[in-house]
Amino acid sequence: IWCVEHDRALVLGGAAVGGVRLGLPRLVWTTTARSNFKHLLYNARKNAEKVCQSADLTLWRERAPTWMRIDYWEIFLNIWAVERWQQTSTTMKVNRAANPEANMHTSWFVSFATHQSRLEKERKRPPTFQEVFDKTHKKKWTDQYISDRAQEVAESYSQQVTEKYAGEEQPQLDSEVWVAASGAPKKGHVYGFGHSMDTSRVLSGTSSSASHTSAFTTAGAPSTSPNEMRGFIRDEISGLESRLA
């Protein structure tokens, strides 16, 4: 199994990672998994703070998440205790508060796939991507989008697919039109896509317009192995330490 700790050079076009030749789906999965790991780590911090009812890092040492070795957890605690890291964290919080549109989402704790499944049960048919997007990017009860960007992307996509498929059945998702409306992927992530969604079709330039079946699905890549999880952890530690050096 290829280990993430060897990931030193990610080249999407050439599919080269740390000298190891990989297919695009694997690279997409790695990018998504790395992003998900950061969410796991964030949740581990919040959980430790909640259980200990304190932001004092010295009280968190016995609150390591079940998926992380205690020695790795202690390394993270030591890094988080560094004044420079805390200053950076505070700055990022201020920036997020100043730019709420970049962080708004009406369904933080419910996955994209879960919303997709719920809508399918409610409507007795597979929902379109835009229906799921609206579900996760509109304020409850008001039917208003959470940000100007969300509204602009949704309206642009709706207009473009209407024009493209005039008089024809529209696919659940036309990835080419969505990217045209939402902008190019950033760090492997497409605006509006949930973290559990398979982005390989968009990143590889494959249009889903050729298929009127399920055009957006959760990633079918292999699950994270213990070796890969350790690789993510060591990568994150190395990155944090280098930034604090």
TrEMBL record:
InterPro entries: Probable_transposase_24
Pfam families recorded: Transposase_24 (PF03004)
Region (Disordered): 202-231
Biased composition (Low complexity): 204-221
Listed name of the protein: Uncharacterized protein
Organism: Colocasia esculenta
